[in-house]
From TrEMBL:
Keywords: Hydrolase, Metal-binding. CDD domains: POD-like_MBL-fold, RHOD. This is MBL fold metallo-hydrolase. It comes from Pedobacter petrophilus. It comes from the Bacteria. GO terms for molecular function: hydrolase activity; metal ion binding; sulfur dioxygenase activity. The keyword Protein transport does not apply. One of its GO terms (biological process) is glutathione metabolic process.
Length: 445
């Protein structure tokens, strides 16, 4: 038996292939949109992919479950509560899958979503591992506030938080201490708030160190779980729905993206310019916002641009452009790309902030802090700053006065580059807009 873990660092997503050497069969759990790594793993091990399990309809990425079924003939397993419209076999409490000396038995573990399941792997009659999806993470548990308006079944966050309390204690904690825990996400995901950097653990280790498994009554647990959850990107509910139906094959979707700079741009459509901020500021096209290519590009693209909203995608090379189109496809946004093209310059720019002048008279500027509210409250930088989190900025631009020059900051420069470009694009010549960038670090106590 072999458990292979696949990691997508950009989305902090973990998926799994369970290989039974004896039967030469593989069952996948929570696969990513790109199915190539799983097909390669099967080929390398001379095994057949016979099953794909979805622990729930994911909010933060598009799954490749339907394409895997279409490509390999593997059966898709998911909870009946999911209401899947793709070909599938329901998989709920009491159901099992057996192949070789391996048996997979399902536990309904609602809490992150009403339709969440966890999968216990039994090898030669002994519980060996549990695949917990977004129910139990290493150091944390899944957030309960993503299904109030999405999915086949919706539920209020308080209700799901209570279900999470019982799922953890009645379904997962009774497992033996030596059972390995394999979650669907690691640190950096927005599906939880305080995950460990570890990618696996054991029930025994989590019993000791995971806050959500400690002795407490239900009311205390619910309060703690609901407090300070991270923001919800715009794309999350869209992905829940798309995963419930199943996405189109990746290569077919990518082939439909129009490559090449349009002869004429629509001024109603943003240009998402992904170049490093120093190049963007030097010269970009009118109507551009600067969402830099980086580790969290997918998250910020899906937080700033709404589902179904068309956008142009620009990069500084063909290699980068192809990479970014694939990143957009991870969250199902390839269909919204009006055109994708390479860019090196543009007719508009952004001036650099005069730091000496700013330091000597910060009151002469309107300062906009685009960090999350909890960050701004915990470690304020400027006492008179207006806090508008980056994911809310487009909807709250009217809260920013333009009687003074505007200076935008975050914690390190990535979000402020995007935020300042959004404000500059909206304010145009009304007032100066500046990005404090990495210089903000000099203002922290």
């Amino acid at each position: 038996m072999n458990i292979e873990q696949f990691e997508d660092k950009g989305l902090a997503h973990l998926s799994y292939a369970i290989l039974c050497d004896y039967a030469a069969e593989i069952v996948l759990i929570d696969p990513a949109r790109d199915i190539t790594p799983y097909l390669s793993f099967a080929k390398k091990n001379k095994a057949t992919i016979t099953g794909v399990i979805e622990t729930h309809p994911h909010a933060d990425f598009i799954s490749g479950h339907l394409e895997l079924h279409q490509t390999t003939g593997a059966a898709i397993y998911c909870s009946q509560l999911l209401g899947a419209t793709y070909p599938h076999q329901t998989f709920d409490d009491g159901d099992t899958i057996a192949f070789g000396r391996i048996e997979l038995k399902v536990l309904n573990t609602p809490g992150h979503s009403p339709d969440s399941i966890s999968i216990v792997l039994t090898h030669e009659g002994k519980d060996h591992a549990v695949f917990t999806g977004d129910t139990l993470f290493i150091g944390d548990c899944g957030r309960p506030d993503l299904r109030e308006q999405a999915g086949n079944q919706t539920a209020k966050r308080e209700e799901l938080a209570r279900q999470m309390y019982h799922s953890l204690r009645n379904k997962l904690l009774p497992l033996d201490d030596e059972v390995w825990v394999y979650p669907a996400h690691g640190a950096g995901t927005l599906c939880g708030k305080n995950l460990s950097d570890a990618s696996r653990s054991t029930i025994g280790a989590e019993r000791i160190s995971n806050w959500s498994l400690q002795t407490m009554d239900e009311e205390r647990f619910v309060r703690a779980l609901l407090k300070d959850q991270p923001f919800i990107p715009r794309y999350f509910s869209y992905d829940v729905g798309l995963n419930r139906y199943g996405a189109a094959p990746l290569q077919k979707s990518l082939a439909q993206v129009i490559i090449g700079k349009p002869v004429k741009f629509s001024n109603q459509i943003f240009i998402v310019d992904t170049r490093p901020e120093q190049y963007f500021k030097k010269g970009h096209l009118p109507g551009s916002i600067n969402i830099q290519n980086g580790g969290k590009f997918e998250t910020w693209l899906g937080s700033i641009i709404a589902p179904e909203e068309a956008f142009y995608l620009a990069a500084d090379s063909e290699e980068q452009l192809n990479q970014l189109i694939r990143k957009a496809a991870k969250i199902g946004y390839e269909d919204f790309i009006e055109a994708a093209f390479v860019i090196s310059d543009g007719s508009e720019g952004m001036d650099a902030l005069n730091m000496e002048k700013f330091k000597s008279a910060t009151d002469d500027y309107t300062i906009v802090d685009v960090r999350n509210a909890a960050e701004a409250q915990e470690e304020p930088v400027f006492s008179h700053a207006i806090n508008i989190p980056l994911n809310e900025l487009r909807d709250r631009l009217t809260e920013i006065p333009f009687n003074k020059p505007v200076v935008v900051h975050c914690a390190g420069g990535y979000r402020s580059a995007a935020g300042s470009s959004i404000i500059k694009n909206a304010f145009k010549s009304k007032t100066g807009v500046f990005d404090l960038g990495e210089s903000v670090k000099g203002f922290f106590d």
